[in-house]
């Protein structure tokens, strides 16, 4: 049960969902039309590519999957825990994500598949970084779980069963953030192309650096107050 949701959880979940929405829509509108923030569709496309004997597409799709998993591995190395708690090395993880997105831009502009792989790696890192809070799954790079939880909440309410309003609002915040990221990312992509990724790179970089500074101001505590 979610007893309460501190402001940093709301801001972090919604803000990172915006970032993921922007990155994913840029990947979808790009030269390979790839989903970067989740792997369900990518795995389905990989199956179709293998069945059709398309070696090039299969290798590209495998690269996306491997990069996303590598990002999650990197998050595990940096954050070292799947439970959201202030004081962990989220600042370093966000700076790494910013760097991956920034480096991806010139590669994507040259239509290099490595650029899409770096962006997928950034999404894998982000998704693994925000895993659980108060025993509840918090995923910011895809919405399947959020829509599932929304449906379960509504089903419980229809049957008169107890349901957590805070969980509902958290799901809606993440869904709205991802959608807003998709809309803004698509509009910016029409004018700036792959350079649109500099925006989420700057956002994660600034937040990551700010987090590190705030954490350093509380020496010896190992964490910041909620």
UniProtKB/TrEMBL annotation:
TM spans (from-to): 59-78, 90-108, 168-188, 194-214
PANTHER family: SLR0142 PROTEIN, UPF0700 TRANSMEMBRANE PROTEIN YOAK
Keywords: Membrane, Transmembrane, Transmembrane helix
Higher taxonomy: Bacteria, Pseudomonadati, Pseudomonadota, Gammaproteobacteria, Lysobacterales
Stretch forming the signal peptide: none
Zinc in keyword set: no
Name by which UniProt lists this protein: DUF1275 domain-containing protein
């Amino acid at each position: 049960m979610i007893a309460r949701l501190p402001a940093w959880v709301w801001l972090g979940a919604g803000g990172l969902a915006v970032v993921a929405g922007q990155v994913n829509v840029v990947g979808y509108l790009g030269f390979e039309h790839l989903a970067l923030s989740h792997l369900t569709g990518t795995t389905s496309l990989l199956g179709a590519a293998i069945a059709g004997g398309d070696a090039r597409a299969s290798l590209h799709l495998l690269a996306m999957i491997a990069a996303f998993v590598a990002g999650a591995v990197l998050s595990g190395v940096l954050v070292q825990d799947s439970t959201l708690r202030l004081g962990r090395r989220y600042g370093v993880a966000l700076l790494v994500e910013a760097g991956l997105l920034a480096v991806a831009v010139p590669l994507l502009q040259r239509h290099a598949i490595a650029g899409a792989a770096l962006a997928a790696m950034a999404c894998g890192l982000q998704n693994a970084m925000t895993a659980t809070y108060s025993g509840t799954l918090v995923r910011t790079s895809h919405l399947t779980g959020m829509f599932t939880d929304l449906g379960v909440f509504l089903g419980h309410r229809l049957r008169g069963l107890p349901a957590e309003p805070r969980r509902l609002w958290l799901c809606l915040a993440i869904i709205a953030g991802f959608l807003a990221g998709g809309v803004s990312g698509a509009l910016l992509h029409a004018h700036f192309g792959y350079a649109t990724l500099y925006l989420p790179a700057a956002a994660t970089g600034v937040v990551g650096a700010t987090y590190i500074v705030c954490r350093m101001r509380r020496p010896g505590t190992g964490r910041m107050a909620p």
